[in-house]
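Mitochondrial import receptor subunit TOM9-2
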Amino acid sequence: MATQPRRGGVSLPERRGSSKPESGILAKITSSPIVSRGRQAACDAAFVSKKLLRSTGKAAWIAGTTFLILVVPLIIEMDREQQLNELELQQASLLGAPPAAPAHK
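Tokens:
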């Protein structure tokens, strides 16, 4: 007697009422055109917000790197210039020269 090899797996019982169409109130509500339009509007809103968030992230990246490359060195250089002016003013006052009016106010 030749036996066939066993195949693994579990067969699940069929769901109740799978052969007849659902006629409950929940089925009627979920299949209504208002719900389907609302679902479509929610999907569209999610899509638009995802695109907006992605483009906002790209814009923030561009603004941040531009700030680091252009503005931060400018701030550092302006601070150095301010320190140099203060040092010259201090040296002039130590040497006895009359204090000069600051160039920038």
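The chain is about 65% helix and 0% strand.
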